[in-house]
Every structure is written in C-alpha cells, then in structure tokens.
C-alpha cells in the first residue's frame, strides 16, 4: 500500500514521475486481476454446472418408473388451479419429462387460461392443448370479460373469446366440463355436445333462456351450476335432462321452484342460494327420493324470519348445509332431516330433529360473544341425551385471517370444555379448511373432473 510522508503536501517532480510509473504498474496489475477474475468466474460456472449435472445423474427421481412419473404428472394436472399451464411447465424441465408428458393426452385435457395473458399466446396454448389432448374428453374454461374493464380492453377480450369459441367448435363432441358465461354459451346454443356432463355459468344473467337444457343436444348433462343466473321460464318437461346435481339462485318469481320440481326424481344434490322471498308458495310437497345433499343459503338481512320450512321431502338425505343472514336467530329452512348424518350451518340450529347426526360443522363468526352464545345453546341442547345420540364430532371453522385474533384463541380454550361437559364423548375440532360434505356439489364436481375418460 502507498504511504507518503505527508499526503497534504504537494509532490515534487521526482515524486510525480515516480507516482506515474506506479500508476501504470497498478493499472497493469488491475487488468491482470480482471482477467483472472473472468477466468475464476468461468471456472465457478463450469464447476457449478458439473455439480448440478452429477446431482441430477444420481437423483432418486431418475429411478422412478415412467408409469409412476405419469401418475405424478396426472396429479399435477388435477391441481390445475395452482398452475393452468402445468403440462407446458413440465415439458420444459428435461428431455425425459417432455417425452413422458407429450405421451399423456389426459394431462392436456384441462384448458383453463387466463384472459389476462397475451391474446396470441392464449390462442397458441389452447390450440396446443386441443391437439395434444386428443382423444380424451375436455374440461374447458373460457375466460370471462371483466365488467369493469375499459372499452378497449373489453373489445380485445371479446375478440379473444370469439377466437377460443372458433377453436373449440371442431372439438365440441369431446367437451365433458364447460365453464362459460351465459353470453358465451348462447353462441353454442344450437351445437350438439354428446359428452357434456357439467356446465357452470360464471356470470349473472338477469333473464336467461334455458336453451342449453335440452336432452337432444346435451343427452348426458348431469351437473348444472347456474350461479346467479335467473331463468325467465322453465324448460319444457319433454326436453329436460335427467339432472343429478343442480345449483341455482332463488331468483324472481318461482321459475326456480318449477325447475327443481322438474328434475326432483333424479337429483342427488341440490344447492339453492340468494335472497329467499321469506315464504314458500302453497305448491304441495316435492319429493326427492334420491337426494343425498341439500344446501340452502338465505342472505337476507338480520332479523328476517322464515314463515314455513321448505316443502321438500328428502328421505335419503345424508348431508345438509344451511346458511342464513342471522347467526343468532334459530331458523328452520328445511324440516325433513331425520336421516341427516352431516350438518353444516352458520347459525344456531335446533338439533332435536337430527336423530342420526354424527358430525356438526359450524362456521364461526369473528365475535367472541357470538361464539360463546352458540356454545351455550349447543351445550343446553346436548344435555338431553335423546338429542343427536350419535353425535361424535363438532367442527368449528374459522377463516385463516381470524386465527390470530384474541377472540379465536379464547374460543379454542373455552368452547371445548363447555361442549364436553354436556357430551364427554364428542370430539371438538377447530379448523381453517372447509371440508366438502359427502355428496355436495363441490365434491361431485371434483369427481367428474378427475374422471379420465376417452371420447
């Protein structure tokens, strides 16, 4: 290192010459150091690549048979909500994985690309998936146009939708599950889809013509999720397919009730949600001989009452879900519950009618007084040994964002003891994950999606 006698003093001519010679030598040394640095970086890169190559060579996954690797890829495909283009990602890993995934048409049978992606890329991906999935049946999601988007963006997305529909038309015979908006589905209203089993409408249509409920065009449809679409009229009974799973809103008037009656003999699961009118019309009982899961959600304001329970007769009901706008007001939305084994509710339930109940799921609020009020009322009912004698589990569900709240921790410490004082053999669980009840619409949807069928 350079250590002059006095850095503040001006250098002499001799010192200046000496310094210039030193600077030249240092610059040469620096240049030599940079050259060695680049060589070192290149050597580090070569060593790192060699290490990775050798690690990959001895990796246990290389010993996995192709058959098991294929099953792993199928599981990744079934978790498509994590990554809609997972087969493409897998194909980029290595040559072997690419060969395996390209030889798996089932893995390419999910077509669900976001409308936020580049238009040309979406079209390219869908074309690739359609080609590589043949001859398997398809599970198709058509991107929805955002209602709040700017006009330019809506035009662009509308153009994308039209391109997707054109791509799908030659493959309509292979579509098994279809998620679209009512407007998109209207463009396919006269097209026959012989293998279509599940239809989900992803928007709210104020007055929807039931053109797609036609057993001539859709002879195999079993699952229909109308979300918030309100039908203007009920389909003709002669054309109505044998639906097994139906989800629809209460809607205006009683068209929704006519629809339910039209397929009551074949339904296995039924979900009704929205703003309940407050009373059931005098239509007489509706029998559901095969119904195993029923879900009724009433979103009306706090304090509203139901004048009479539903006219549904459900002798085979196993799972019942009931959601109301008032947690503390005991409701009776459905009365024929003697056969119910699994119950989920967001409010206080009168348990005396649930003779065969084994599991009770309750959606917890975020207020500690409401939680304690529920626990006290539940405890009071369970003191009667004739009430739910088969009850074994009480599961309390909270949203993950609520688990760090003091009220949640207080409930976890106090509620189990309260319930066990009334029924010591009942297990009390706290969970943040909602489990699908047996026979529910969501459980059935998953089973249909996972079914590997060749067209």
Structure description:
Helix content is 35%, strand content 15%. With 455 residues, the protein is α/β, with parallel strands linked by helices. The chain has three domains: 32 residues; 193 residues, Alpha-Beta Horseshoe (Leucine-rich repeat, LRR (right-handed beta-alpha superhelix)), CATH 3.80.10; 119 residues, no CATH class. It has a 13-stranded parallel sheet with strand order 1-2-3-4-5-6-7-9-11-12-13-14-15, with helices on both faces. The protein has a two-stranded parallel ribbon with strand order 8-10. Strand 1, helix 5 and strand 2 form a beta-alpha-beta unit. The radius of gyration is 32 Å and the shape is extended. The N and C termini lie far apart (80 Å). The relative contact order is 0.06.
Rg measurement, Å: 32 Å
Under the CATH scheme, which class of the largest domain? Alpha Beta
Number of strands: 15
Question: Which stretches of 5+ consecutive residues score pLDDT under 50?
Answer: none
Q: What is the count of DSSP helices, taking H or I runs of 4+ residues?
A: 11
* CA-CA gap between termini: 80 Å
* Beta strand %: 5-15%
Can you summarize the main beta sheet? Answer: 13 strands, parallel
Query: Overall 3D geometry?
Result: extended
Overall pLDDT? 80
Q: Topology as H/E string? A: HHHHEHEHEHEEEHEEEEEEEHEHEH
């Amino acid at each position: 290192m350079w250590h002059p006698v006095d850095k503040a003093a001006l250098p002499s001519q001799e010192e200046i010459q000496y310094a210039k010679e030193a600077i030249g030598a240092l610059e040469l040394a620096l240049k030599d150091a940079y050259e060695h640095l680049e060589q070192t970086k290149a050597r580090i890169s070569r060593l790192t690549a060699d290490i990775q190559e050798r690690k990959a060579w001895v990796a246990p996954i290389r010993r996995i048979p192709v058959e098991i690797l294929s099953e792993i890829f199928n599981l990744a495909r079934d978790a498509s909500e994590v990554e809609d283009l997972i087969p493409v990602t897998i194909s980029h890993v290595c040559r072997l994985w690419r060969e395996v995934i390209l030889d798996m048409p089932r893995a390419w049978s999910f077509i669900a690309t976001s409308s936020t992606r580049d238009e040309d890329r979406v079209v390219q991906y869908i074309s690739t998936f359609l080609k590589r999935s043949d001859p398997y049946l398809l599970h198709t999601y058509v991107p929805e146009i955002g209602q709040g988007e700017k006009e330019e963006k809506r035009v662009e997305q509308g153009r994308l939708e039209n391109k997707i529909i054109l791509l799908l038309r030659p493959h309509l015979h292979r579509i098994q599950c279809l998620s679209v908006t009512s407007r998109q589905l209207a463009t396919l209203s006269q097209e026959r889809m012989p293998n279509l089993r599940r239809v989900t409408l992803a928007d709210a249509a104020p007055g929807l013509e039931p053109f797609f409920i036609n057993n001539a065009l859709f002879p195999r449809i079993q699952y229909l999720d109308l979300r918030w679409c309100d039908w203007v009229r009920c389909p003709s009974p002669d054309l109505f397919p044998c639906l097994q799973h139906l989800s629809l809103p209460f809607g205006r008037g009683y068209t929704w009730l006519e629809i339910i009656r039209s397929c009551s003999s074949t339904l296995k699961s039924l979900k009704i949600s929205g703003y309940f009118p407050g009373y059931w019309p005098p239509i007489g009982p509706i029998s559901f001989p095969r119904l195993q899961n029923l879900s009724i959600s009433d979103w009306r304001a706090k304090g509203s009452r139901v004048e009479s329970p539903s006219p549904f007769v459900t002798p085979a009901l196993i799972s019942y879900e009931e959601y109301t706008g008032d947690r503390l007001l005991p409701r009776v939305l459905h009365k024929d519950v003697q056969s119910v084994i699994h119950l989920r509710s967001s409010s206080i339930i009168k348990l005396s009618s649930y003779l065969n109940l084994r599991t009770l799921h309750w959606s917890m609020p975020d207020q500690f007084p409401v939680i304690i009020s529920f626990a006290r009322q539940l405890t009071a009912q369970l003191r009667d040994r004739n009430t739910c004698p088969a009850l074994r589990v009480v599961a309390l569900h909270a949203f993950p964002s609520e688990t760090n709240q003091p009220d949640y921790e207080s409930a976890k410490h106090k509620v189990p003891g309260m319930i066990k004082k009334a029924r010591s053999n009942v297990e009390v669980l706290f969970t943040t994950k909602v489990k699908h009840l047996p026979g529910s619409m969501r459980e059935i949807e998953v089973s249909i999606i996972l079914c590997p069928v060749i067209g």
